[in-house]
């Protein structure tokens, strides 16, 4: 009960801090509501972007050690940021379209395409939202004993409130401050726990401790991180070997002694499963889906447009990537310690219960409360980012009228749908759901963006066919997996088939329909690829608002 | 009259387009060239990123050390950040 009270107090305090950073302002039009009035500087924007990725799974370290695809996720996303930086950021910012549906309509002049892209953004955003809600439910159930729906409801309400308070502008500042809050909390609590562990461990015991490292820990981690379709394929039969020369220094180097096992680790002759080499394609596919899927995530694209211009947008992405790299220390920090301290049991639950187990009494309660509040803030970051981005996309598609009520209605509808989906699904599906979001994004929005930005001969028919093929194959493979029909790597990692197929279909159909290449493609290419007039040279930035949106709708953000 | 205007445009094209001189309504003469240079640069960066990503599981497999992938996913982060910073510098130099 103390834990419950403490964690809720901490959460309310943190929420207060981050909302007070939001500085909600009054807006008259949804366009102004969605987009920040003032340009956000790269470091602040970068913090907001990386805040999105330090969400649920990554935060609690459940990604690192317990889930099949989580292990490679941070590396894949970091690679994805490099690809976004190289191929997408500056042209997309310079196209001056606000969302992916806007971009599709502007570039290819097709309204059906706009609706298809909106649907895809909705599905991808929904996968992320449901994962956040499930994680919040688990945290609340574990720590307070209250039913999981209390966590869903609290998260949904807070996310909607922040998204409605001020649109992307306030969401950006909330997320930027949340990034630093999370970093301080997670690293701080982690360091305290490691210090406690080190303090309680008599120095002579280190060798014995290392010898007693859980048998299945690293082997299991390696097995699952290769994306084994069958979790039992992990070699659980490797006996514990006392390493001859365990390093007796900092406990933070705990992974190092694992090298001592190396000579003894046979190449894993699993019975029913394939060998380690057979698991390689799975790992590669996880990396590929994350790397290509990052560019299609609706809440990342939105962030580009609060940057001042193409240069600043590029810098934002680099800043985001650097901060994300910093945060990647967190999962191993907890994952290793919880595997060491609390052997056996469900990993993601143990991470949260770790402080109470190591430090019985008020100190443990306090740390647990902080950890829970930090986790909740993380879920909130992703939830309100996705809500605001998807809500904006839908309101722009559903109604061309200008009115903040449409945006508000869309945000509410998205939140309610996500709640309903959360009720219908199982918490264990969070990570697969997020991976599905990445795969779908890689198979549909990624080819649209890459070809749309760099290839003049792309046509709307090509994009339509390619996106339908990529999305359809992904959906079919997911259904196959759910019904138990196993086709090997394709069923567990739909991206392996869907991404090449989507690219191929898009290119072929575009070449077949040369008459549908939109007019003025040269002007579009010039707008996307030529640097904007310099802010410093040209004084006040004064781009005409009307050229932002193709159909004469309200311009989004040009009057900074 | 028209004959007098042509040399002006041509002289500017030869001199190179100064930063900020592009007009949004017309396609500047060197867009195609700029795009292909940008694309070459971007593809080089993407290739480097993909190679380092694909190398991860391969190296983990080759090391056969349990837990190596934890260290590898951490070790690849600075590499990718360095790659991003390098690309940022090159891209900005190209557009200057």
Which class do the helix and strand fractions of chain A yield?
mainly alpha
- Name the structural class of chain B: mainly alpha
Order of helices and strands of chain A: HHHHHHHHHHHHHHHHHHHHHHHH
Tally of helical runs of chain B: 3
Gross morphology of chain A is globular
Number of helices of chain A: 24
For the report, how would you describe the main beta sheet of chain A? none
Supply the key terms.
heterodimer, A: 560 residues, mainly alpha, Sodium/glucose cotransporter, 24 helices, globular, B: 96 residues, 78% helix, membrane (chain B)
What is shown here, in short?
The complex is a heterodimer of chains A (560) and B (96). Chain A has 560 residues and is mainly alpha-helical.
Structural write-up:
Chain B: Keywords: Membrane, Transmembrane, Transmembrane helix. Chain B: The chain crosses the membrane at residues 42-63, 69-88. Chain B: Residues 1-28 are annotated as: Disordered. The complex is a heterodimer of chains A (560) and B (96). With 560 residues, chain A is mainly α. Chain A has a domain at 2-199 and 276-429: Sodium/glucose cotransporter, CATH 1.20.1730.10. In chain A, 70% of the residues lie in helices and 0% in strands. Chain A has helices spanning 2-20, 30-34, 42-53, 56-60, 62-66, 73-95, 100-108, 111-144, 148-200, 205-211, 215-225, 276-293, 298-304, 310-327, 330-341, 347-358, 362-398, 404-424, 430-454, 460-482, 489-492, 495-512, 521-529, 535-538. The longest helix of chain A has 53 residues, at 148-200. Residues 24-30, 60-69, 213-275 and 536-560 of chain A have low confidence and may be disordered. With 96 residues, chain B is mostly helical. Chain B has a domain at 30-96. Chain B has helices spanning 2-15, 31-63, 68-95. In chain B, helix 2 runs antiparallel to helix 3. Chain B is elongated, with a radius of gyration of 22 Å. Mean pLDDT of chain B is 75; it is low at 6-27.
């Amino acid at each position: 009960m103390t834990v419950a009270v403490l964690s809720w107090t901490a959460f309310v305090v943190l929420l207060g801090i981050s909302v007070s950073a939001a500085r909600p302002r009054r807006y008259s039009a949804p366009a102004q509501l969605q987009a920040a009035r003032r340009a956000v500087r790269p470091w602040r924007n970068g913090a907001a972007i990386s805040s999105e990725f330090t969400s649920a799974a990554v935060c609690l370290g459940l990604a690192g050690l317990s889930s099949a695809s989580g292990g490679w996720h941070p590396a894949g996303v970091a690679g994805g940021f490099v690809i976004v930086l190289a191929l997408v950021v500056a042209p997309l910012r310079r196209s001056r379209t606000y969302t992916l549906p806007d971009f599709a309509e502007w570039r290819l002049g097709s309204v059906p395409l706009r609706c298809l892209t909106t649907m895809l953004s909705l599905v991808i955003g929904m996968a992320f939202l449901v994962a956040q809600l499930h994680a919040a439910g688990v945290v609340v159930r574990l720590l307070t004993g209250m039913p999981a729906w209390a966590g869903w409801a609290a998260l949904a309400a807070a996310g909607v409130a922040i998204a409605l308070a001020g649109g992307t502008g306030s969401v950006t500042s909330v997320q930027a401050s949340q990034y630093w809050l999370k970093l301080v909390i997670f690293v701080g609590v982690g360091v305290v726990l490691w210090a406690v562990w080190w303090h309680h461990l008599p120095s002579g015991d280190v060798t014995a401790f290392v010898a007693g490292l859980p048998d299945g820990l690293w082997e299991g981690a390696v097995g699952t991180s290769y994306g084994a379709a069958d979790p039992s394929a992990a070699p659980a039969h490797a006996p514990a070997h006392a390493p001859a020369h365990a390093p007796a220094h900092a406990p933070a180097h705990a992974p190092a002694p694992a090298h001592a096992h190396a000579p003894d680790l046979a190449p894993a002759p699993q019975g029913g499963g394939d060998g380690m080499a057979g698991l390689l394609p799975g790992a590669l596919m996880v990396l590929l889906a994350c790397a290509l899927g990052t560019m299609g995530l609706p809440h990342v694209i939105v962030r580009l447009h609060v940057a001042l211009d193409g240069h600043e947008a590029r810098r934002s992405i680099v800043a985001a990537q650097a901060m994300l790299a910093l945060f990647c220390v967190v999962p191993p920090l907890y994952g290793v310690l919880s595997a060491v301290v609390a052997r056996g049991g469900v990993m993601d639950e143990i991470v949260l219960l770790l402080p109470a187990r190591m430090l019985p009494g008020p100190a443990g309660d306090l740390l647990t409360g902080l950890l829970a509040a930090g986790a909740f803030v993380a879920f909130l970051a992703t939830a309100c980012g996705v809500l605001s981005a998807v809500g904006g996309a839908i309101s722009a598609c559903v109604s061309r009228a200008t009115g903040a009520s449409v945006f508000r209605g869309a945000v509410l509808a998205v939140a309610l749908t996500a709640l309903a989906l959360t009720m219908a699904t199982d918490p264990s599906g969070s990570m697969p759901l997020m991976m599905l979001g990445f795969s779908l994004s890689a198979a549909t929005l990624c080819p649209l963006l890459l070809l749309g930005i760099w290839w003049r001969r792309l046509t709307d028919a090509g994009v339509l066919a390619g996106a339908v093929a990529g999305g359809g194959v992904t959906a079919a493979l997911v259904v196959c997996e759910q019904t138990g029909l196993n086709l090997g790597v394709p069923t567990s990692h739909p991206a392996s088939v869907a991404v090449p197929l989507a690219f191929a279909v898009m290119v072929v159909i575009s070449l077949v329909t040369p008459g549908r290449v939109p007019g003025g493609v040269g002007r579009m290419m010039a707008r996307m690829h030529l640097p904007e007039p310099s802010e410093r040279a040209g004084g006040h930035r004064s781009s005409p608002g009307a050229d932002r949106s193709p159909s004469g709708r309200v311009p989004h953000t040009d009057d900074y | 009259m028209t004959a007098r205007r042509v040399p002006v445009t041509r002289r500017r094209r030869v001199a190179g387009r100064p930063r900020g001189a592009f007009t949004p309504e017309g396609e500047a003469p060197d867009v195609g060239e700029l795009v292909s240079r940008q694309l070459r640069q971007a593809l080089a960066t993407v290739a480097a990123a993909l190679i380092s990503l694909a190398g991860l599981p391969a190296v983990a497999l080759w090391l056969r050390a349990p837990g190596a992938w934890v260290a590898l996913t951490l070790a690849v982060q600075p590499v990718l950040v360095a790659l991003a910073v390098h690309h940022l510098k090159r891209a900005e130099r190209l557009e200057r």
